[in-house]
Write a structure and sequence with these properties.
Blueprint lengths: L4 E10 L3 H17 L3 E7 L4 H7 L7 H5 L4 E6 L7 H15 L4 E7 L15 E7 L9 E4 L7 E4 L5 H16 L4 E6 L7 H14 L5 E6 H10 L6 E4 L1 H14 L7 E5 L7 E5 L16 H13 L3 H16 L13 H14 L12
Parallel strand pairs: 1-2, 1-3, 3-12, 5-10, 8-9, 8-10
Antiparallel strand pairs: 4-5, 4-11, 6-7, 11-12
Helix pairs in contact: 1-9, 1-11, 5-6, 7-8, 9-10, 10-11
């Protein structure tokens, strides 16, 4: 028998319901790992808003160094009512994304069993959104002057590089080749006359080298309408940091709930650890009540397993929470009565029943 593959995973449960959904995801991963030829070493990081209140920072000064030798990062949620969102975001998530060149934010979107879309025509929805994750509109270039005076001014610059647009477009092409071969690229090139035409040109050049992939270039407002009116026509969307952020939440809402949506902050070459997280926030209004929906964190953990090469294990976790949902075990946000623990136990039951189907994954990367 070969020795098990070992992965070192940093856990940042963070704030609010992150403290509840993270243990749920970990228990499911551990159950699947126990039946597989790999093991997880979890490294807990007590970073987030409580750490900020005690230390004036969201994470230690050497936080990036502490994460650098890990295989991946699993994040719960970050945010608190008494701390400005830009502090929590720029103090934790964005430094991790940028220092580890997690230049792809990957968001699968589909309607899960038992989840109702608000649209009549969304049955069969299945798309992937590839969002550029480290540059674009969310740059640090800019500033404010004349603070507090009538002439106060703020400048925020968007930064698009040929390298940055090319690599995210290439990732989108790979996704499309594994799916239906369709890429939609939204911009606002009739208004943003420098950055958006540049994006269009670079993406088109990448897709031209992939004759088996079809490119559909659209204005972002037209795509927003299309997501609602013709969601089944979409396969892979590749978008800038800002547009990808917005359109992915819209698509998740069309799929029935932002609360179940996962995302991966990916460093495709695997030179650095990637980070996986649910899309939902810290939801302080329901934190501590045991009613949080852990599907987003479980799905994010499944994406992590797939990224690490444990493809069958990731598929098993997805199949387990889909089976629980199909059985009618749902949390309140999905119209059910189950608490976080109830739903987790149902998923664990399926994880164990699927033990015999789990095969070994790829090599440790």
């Amino acid at each position: 028998m070969s020795s098990p593959r070992t992965y070192y995973i940093d856990v940042i449960a963070g704030d609010g319901i992150g403290q509840e959904v993270m243990p749920a995801a970990i228990r499911c991963v551990d159950a699947i790992a126990a039946a597989s030829d790999f093991e997880i070493v979890w490294r807990d990081r007590d970073w987030g808003s409580n750490y900020y209140r005690a230390n004036g920072r969201m994470m230690p000064t050497d936080g990036i160094d502490q994460l650098a030798d890990g295989d991946a990062i699993l994040l719960g949620a970050v945010g608190a009512p008494d701390i400005a969102d830009d502090v929590t975001l720029w103090g934790l998530l964005i430094p991790i994304r940028r220092e580890f060149l997690q230049y792809v934010n990957l968001r699968p979107v589909r309607i899960l069993p038992g989840v109702q879309s608000p649209l009549r025509n969304a049955d069969g929805l299945d798309m992937v959104i590839v969002r550029e994750n480290v540059e674009g509109e969310y740059s640090e270039v800019g500033g404010r002057v004349y603070r507090g005076l009538p002439e106060e001014m703020a400048i925020q610059e968007a930064v698009f590089t040929r390298t940055g647009v090319t690599r995210v477009a290439e990732f989108a092409v790979a996704q499309a080749r594994a799916r239906r071969g369709l890429i939609t690229s939204p911009t606002k090139s009739n208004g943003n006359i420098h950055t958006m035409p540049f994006w269009d040109e670079v993406v088109a050049g990448v897709v031209e080298r992939a004759p088996d992939v079809t490119l559909d270039k659209m204005l972002i407002d037209a795509l927003a309408a299309r997501v609602v009116l013709k969601p089944l026509s979409l396969d892979v969307i590749v978008a800038s940091n800002l547009f990808g952020d917005i359109i992915s939440d819209l698509a998740a809402a069309v799929a029935g709930s932002i609360g179940v949506a996962p995302s991966g902050n990916i460093n495709p070459p695997m030179q650095y650890p990637s980070m996986f997280e649910p899309v939902h926030g810290s939801a302080p209004d329901i934190a501590g009540q045991g009613i949080a929906n852990p599907v987003g964190s479980m799905w994010a953990a499944a994406m992590m397993l797939e990224h690490l090469g444990e493809v069958q294990a990731g598929a098993t976790l997805v199949a387990a929470f889909e089976a629980a949902l199909a059985d009618g075990v749902r949390t309140r946000d999905l119209g059910g009565t189950a608490g976080t623990e109830d739903f987790t136990e149902a998923v664990l039951t399926y994880c164990r029943s699927f033990d015999s189907t789990i095969s070994t994954g790829g090599p440790h990367a």
